[in-house]
Amino acid sequence: MLLEIKNLKVKGNHKEILKGINLKLKPGEIQALLGPNASGKSTLAQVISGNPKYKISQGKIFLGTREITKLSPEKRTKLGIALSWQNPPTIKGVKLSHLLEKISQVKNKKLDIGSDLINREINLDFSGGEKKMSELLQILSLNPKLVILDEIDSGLDLKRLEKVAKIIKKELIEKKISVLLITHSGVILRFLKPQMTNVIIKGKIICQEKNYKKVLKIIKRYGYEKCKKCKLLAS
Amino acid sequence: MAMKNVKNVNYWQVDHKIKNVSGQKGVIILPSPEAWQKFKWARKWFARKPKEGYFVWLKEQVDFPLTTCLTIASKKISQNLTNLLVIEKNIKAKANVVCQATKNNLCGTHQAQGKLILKDNAHLEYNHFHQWGSQDFVSPDYQFILGKNSRLTYNYKNLSPPKNLELKTLIYNDENSSANLKFVINGLNSKINLKDTIFLQGKNSQGIVRLRLVGRKNSQIEAKSEILAQASAKGHLDCQGILASKDSTISLIPKLVCQNKKAQITHEASIGKISEEELNYLRTRGLSEKEAINLIITGFLNK
């Protein structure tokens, strides 16, 4: 197993956000995590990557055989975890090219992301699409084993979504890098075809299903609010 | 920290000894005491009768930057400099000044009184780079006299601060002249006092001051920035600080004085801490906490 999360409970702002998450991800596997707003998706992504803002009250996280529950974010990154942020902050005065020089584990990583993006200050006045491209470029330069894509499809028009999906396919999936694909809308699943789809609601994974199309269909029909009524729940 | 390209330095003084003075066609460069003797007209511009320091008189347009370097290399040296830089009418120039200590523990004193005269239509980009030891005392006191239609860009950068820095700057703007000042100072076990004042004396003159101050590790920083508009002029103060340690203090005191109803002067000031979100973001890119802080501060100082 590449990533294993056991009974993870997490607090943020004195409130329990994750209420006993269990998740396993094999090397080279793509899994999706779907859920409504405020269900704990991004919290889980941040906790896996080690954001000290969140306090783990119970449970363990393993990368391979190594327990990483208490490791700093930078050590987790060095071990191969890379997170694409949903809302990455602006780093004023620092060009993207400068950051890439500092963090890059790969020689001359090039992506078709628009000529001037890397010469701009990180995320300053980036459009939604530019932010996603910048995130992709950064995580690919880290030469990761496990990539967590937090809402990589949000705010993208179809053309850009296709472009992003193409890059993910070519640079991650074809290279057998494990991907945890977090999404609210699920639109990108049609392009990336995850092997397992998880649904998280109110801090708990309530459904794990191999056929992503079924999950999308049920969510479309009932919405997340009625997800618990779904026939797939038993699976 | 020693100067690498000594050949390109127009004036280089180490402790009290002059290592190099090299004027070229169109530029007169002399030790200040010699200029005091030689050019009577210059006496009114010197703040006092000089004991040491440099005199630069740019008479014609040149195509290279003027470079002066003042170094402390021995223990307990006390430099007391009187500098004068005169740029004649219509000349565009760039000048770099490096002031430095060669070691961290020399306990030196560097005091400088300088005057810069930009005559009508003159342009000057004036870059000061300071690198000091942790036990030094540094006190530069500069005045800039800007003639009609002249342009001054003054960048003062001090990333290796002394124990004590007293930096005083006065700018006098004549008609249509503009002054664009930026002070970038990294406090590290330092006591820093900045005082800068722009006198907008001429019609349509402009003055902008940008302060970027970082308080790291037991630093006390106080910055008083003032624009005084005496004519129909425009001015802006942009004072920003990052407090990067619990035992440091930054005080920003912007002051605007308007004596002309057609003048427009504004200010913005802020002091903040390092954003946790930015820090965590960079840590998820593999940078250590210290590396991430340094990168955020570098970015802040670049703005």
Brief account:
With 235 residues, chain A is an alpha/beta fold. Helix content of chain A is 29%, strand content 30%.
Explained architecture:
The complex is a heterodimer of chains A (235) and B (303). Chain A has 235 residues and is of the alpha/beta class. Chain A has one domain: Rossmann fold. Helix content of chain A is 29%, strand content 30%. Chain A has seven helices and twelve strands. Chain B has 303 residues and is mainly beta. Chain B has one domain (6-302). Chain B has a ten-stranded mixed sheet with strand order 2-1-5-7-9-11-13-15-17-19, covered by helices on one side. In chain B, strands 3-4-6-8-10-12-14-16-18 form a nine-stranded mixed sheet. In chain B, helix 2 (276-283) packs across helix 3 (289-302). Chain B is globular. The A-B interface holds A 49-53, 72-74, 76-78, 82-83, 85, 88-94, 99, 102-103, 105, 121, 138, 142 and B 275-278, 280-289, 291, 295-296, 298-303.
Following the backbone from N to C, one meets helices and strands of chain B in this order, namely: EEEHEEEEEEEEEEEEEEEEHH
**Strands of chain A, count:** 12
C-alpha-based Rg of chain A, rounded = 17 Å
Strands ordered across the widest β-sheet of chain B: 2-1-5-7-9-11-13-15-17-19
Query: Hey, roughly how much beta strand do the residues of chain A contain?
Result: 25-35%
Average predicted confidence as pLDDT of chain A: 90
